[in-house]
Amino acid sequence: MSTSVSSSHASAPPLGHARVALALALLLGLQPVTTDLYLPALPQLTRALGASMSMAQQTMAALLLAFGVAQLGWGPVADRIGRRPVLLLGLGLYTLASLACALAPNVELLVLGRFVQGVGMAAAVVCARAIVRDLYEPVEGARVMAWGMTGLGVLAITSPSLGGLVTAWGGWRMALAVVALIGSLVLAFIFWRFPETIPARRRDATQPRVVLANLRRIARHHVFIAWALLTSTSYAGLFTMLASSSFVYMDVLGASPAVYGLLLGSNSLAYIVGTFVCRRWVPRFGPVGSVQRAAFFTLAGGASMAALAALGVHSIWAIALPQVLFAIGHGVHQPVSQAAAVGPFPDQAGTASALAGFLLALMAFMIGLWLGVALDGTVRPLAYGVGFWAVVISAVAWTLVRSLERR
User: Which residues pair with 202 in a beta bridge?
Assistant: First the structure.
């Protein structure tokens, strides 16, 4: 039988929606900061460090591998000792690793720094999802998560533009130094302004037999399976676009780093639109009805991008415009599915969040490995990849997620 003790957050000042949404935006926003701000610098650092295309992709793959695996460790720890200690430790590790990346003398050490960076980022994301379940029931949690992800979208708009400008002005090391600065600011916010939220600490949460039993129970739950697959496949489509877009836009289509940053910014703006749509749809149609409607945007974006590439239309607009439709759908899928996947597990919110995050990161890691060999100097790997995932996302929304209404 599990044992628990009451947490100390009962004496903490009450948390309003605004502060929770801001914390979610900062914690989840480390993902686009770590990837999008870095992407405009990727071709430059590849040349500066004499790295191959495959090795350049490893800087992203290492981040995602660590991000995925570390979540499985951070989740039970967060259930045992609370969200705040895990956040402070993880954010401190993230900031130090980001600084090490900016100073890396070769690509091998840069890959190592990105790996450690992923470990720290995992703590932030696991706790962010768990905090939502600590404080809200799933439907209300989806609305608050959507507010947080609107803030994430603002960071996602800012990051590529800032990355492009900083790279053009100070080079790739300066861009990575900015990532370290942002990490330190998030750490300061959590330290000074955000209390513990866990309702009860579970002393047995890190015992191996308990961890394995909880993971098995969560992984077999039909609600978790449907929503975790939607989260993972939706992010897989986005990551296919992000991980290949710097090479496609700049090396294949000739965009400058600054223009590339603006293109990614437009994608993030469309994502923000999706989060606003999400907040209107969830009270009206419910979580299931919302993602079914969003899947039409997803499929329209992915299918049109793949079709234009197949027809030989290889231009910036042929990627950027369909990308906007896909991003609107993503802005609905992510808030709903991330909150709903953890919903059935209020006592193991950290562990459920960790497993969902692990599946997401594992899928992105495999895509990163594939892109390392698939990028061929054309737009096809990006366009066909996004088109494939759009079909999969829509199928999940219209079958597995839809079946939850009948249970």
Answer: 4
> Domains in the chain, please, with CATH?
15-194+204-406 (1.20.1250.20)
Q: Report if pTM > 0.85.
A: no
CA dihedral (30, 31, 36, 41) in degrees, to 10, reads 70
- Phi, psi dihedrals of residue 38, rounded to the nearest 5°: -80, -25
The region that residue 50 occupies, defined by phi over 0 for left and psi between -120 and 50 for alpha, beta otherwise, is: left
Distance of CA 327 to the CA centre of its chain: 13
* Nearest residue to 343 (alpha-carbon basis) of 134, 198, 152: 134
Dist. CA 232–CA 337, nearest whole Å: 9
Mean pLDDT of the chain: 88
With vertex at residue 247, the alpha carbon angle to CA 242 and CA 251, rounded to the nearest 5 degrees, is: 150
Which residues is 200 bridged to in the sheet? 6
Neighbouring C-beta atoms of residue 102, cutoff 10 Å: 18
Burial of 185 (0-12, 13-18, 19+ CB in 10 A): exposed
Q: Flag the least confident range among 81-95, 342-356, 388-402.
A: 342-356
Kindly state the percentage of the chain with pLDDT values over 70.
96
Q: Are 17 and 151 in contact (CB under 8 A)?
A: no
**Mean pLDDT within 227-245:** 92
Radius of gyration of the chain (CA): 20
More confident residue, 1 or 262: 262
Whole-angstrom distance, CA of residue 314 vs CA of residue 304:
13
